Amino acid sequence: MPENDCLFCKIIAGDIPSTTVLETDTTYAFRDINPQADVHVLVVPRTHHEDAEALAKAPRELADVISTGVAVAKQEGIDAAGFRLVFNTGEHAGRTVFHAHLHVLGGEQLGMFGRPGH
Ligand code: 5GP
Ligand code: ZN
To answer: Which of 24, 37, 107, 116 is the most exposed place for a label (fewest CB within 10 A)?
Structure first.
């Protein structure tokens, strides 16, 4: 069920515009509005799950999100060089949107992840 105040539910519904990258029955992939790499795509389950922990309780959808992430990397042509899949969870990870989403990052050499500036 869509959540009224959820930004990504609104994006999935088309109420807020986004740049589509890939669509499946259960997932939606679109370009991040503030890209942190040459390729930065977000993959969301179409149904609302607050975070990775909630999504893990729906293992089929979790698998679909990861499969779509890999399919996005192939479609974007970044699979051979390598890419990163990330779920941010909670404050220390800087998570801002409370609808589980997988970041697909690549298209250039990525820094080591961890502390700010890395
Ligand atoms: P988080 O920090 O929660 O893991 O990631 C949220 C991501 O959503 C950020 O990378 C941010 O740039 C992206 N984002 C926030 N609002 C919008 C929006 O309205 N449209 C798109 N396409 N991306 C958004
Ligand atoms: Zn939502």
So the answer is: 116
14: left (phi over 0), alpha (psi -120 to 50) or beta: left
- Pocket lining: 30 vs ligand 1, CB cutoff 6 Å: yes
pTM of the model: 0.95
- The reply to whether ligand 1 has any atom less than 6 angstroms from the CB of 32 is yes
User: Of all protein residues, whose CA lies closest to atom 21 belonging to ligand 1?
Assistant: 33
Strands of 39-45's sheet in order across: 20-23, 27-31, 39-45, 102-106, 83-86
- Residue 60 pLDDT level (bands cut at 50, 70, 90): very high
- Is 101 tagged catalytic? yes
Question: 83 pairs with which residues across the strands?
Answer: 106
